[in-house]
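General statements about sequence and structure are easier to judge against a single worked case. For one protein, we set the task of working out the C-alpha cells from the amino acid sequence alone. The sequence in question and its C-alpha cells are set out directly beneath this paragraph.
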Amino acid sequence: MVKELSLFTHILFIAAVLITYAIAFITIRPFRMNYRRKYSTLSLKLSYLLYLAIFLVAIYSFVFYGDLEFEKQFRDTFFILSMIMLFLPNLGMMARRSIKHQRVFFNYFFSVLNLFVIYYIYFLLSHTEWLF
C-alpha cells in the first residue's frame, strides 16, 4: 500500500525535524566544556545528538516509506523494547544535571546506552520492508 503524500507534507515534516534538532543542539550546547568532566560530558552530548539525528531520520523513513502494520507490531516484543529504548536517552539527558555523585559514570553509561540505541535503530531499519 503506497501512501500518496504531497511534497508540502514532506517539506513540513523535514522542517519540523530540523527545528527539533536545532532546539536540542542549542539547549544541549555540545561544545560548552565542563572542565571537571570534560570527556564524559562531551561523549554524552555528542552521542545523544548522534542518536537524535538517527532517530529523527528513522521516524521520517518509517512515516513516509515504512510498512506500518500496527497490528503486527503491537504483538511483537520488539515494539515494547522499542518504546523503552526510545525514551531512555531522553530521560538520561533530562536527569544529568540532578546527578551529583558518580556523574562521570552516569555520563559514560548513557553514552554507551545511546550507542546501543543507535545500533537498535539500525537493526530496525535494516529489517523493515520499505515501500519506495
